[in-house]
Write a structure and sequence with these properties.
CATH class: Mainly Beta
Largest sheet: 7 strands, mixed
CATH topology: UDP N-Acetylglucosamine Acyltransferase, domain 1
CATH architecture: 3 Solenoid
Shape: globular
Distance between the termini: 32 Å
Structural class: mainly beta
Strand content: 25-35%
CATH superfamily: Hexapeptide repeat proteins
Helix content: under 10%
Number of domains: 1
Strand order of the largest sheet: 3-6-9-12-15-17-18
Number of helices: 1
Radius of gyration: 16 Å
């Protein structure tokens, strides 16, 4: 993990767990009020990738996450403009909050042996099945079943 940027405001080491033989060139970011990231063994997270957790993100073993990937388990900000502005002012003047309400979050799961292509974005509540591939530049808003390829929003079964 020579180049990993781990942001864990609580400093609770149990909230960011990276398995054996991993290379993390991106950032693992927990929100001030919480979050959890677990990465299995023999995984790669490319440079410029950011994994943002307010709830929980679980990544299996032997997963390849290319460069420039973003994984989010929450909306990060309120939906209304007024609430977003209040949140921004609070963060700018007082730092990230220790408590947060009204922002949707849902766990993310990436199964063993999955491959996430460069510049893909995985949004809250999504599960990527074991051995599946998410093509470069994809925005993933729904589950990808095991052994599937997601390209341009369309799923195809991966043939051996």
């Amino acid at each position: 993990m020579e180049t990993a940027d781990i942001q864990n405001p609580s400093r609770d080491r149990g909230l960011v767990v990276v398995g054996a033989h991993c290379i993390v060139g991106g950032a693992l970011v927990l929100f001030g009020h919480g979050g959890r990231i677990r990465i299995g063994d023999w995984c790669f997270v490319g440079s410029g990738s950011r994994i943002w957790s307010a709830e929980s993100i679980d990544i299996g073993s032997r997963v390849l996450i290319s460069h420039g990937v973003n994984i989010h388990d929450s909306d990060s900000h309120p939906r209304t403009p007024e609430a977003r502005h209040r949140q921004f002012v609070s963060i700018a003047t007082q730092g990230h909050p220790k408590q947060i309400e009204g922002i949707a979050s849902s766990p993310v799961r990436v199964g063993d042996d999955a491959w996430i292509g460069f510049n893909a974005t995985i949004l809250k509540g999504v599960s990527i099945g074991a051995r599946s591939i998410v093509a470069a530049g994809s925005i993933v808003t729904q589950d990808v079943p095991p052994d599937h390829l997601l390209v341009a929003g369309k799923l195809r079964m991966i043939e051996s």
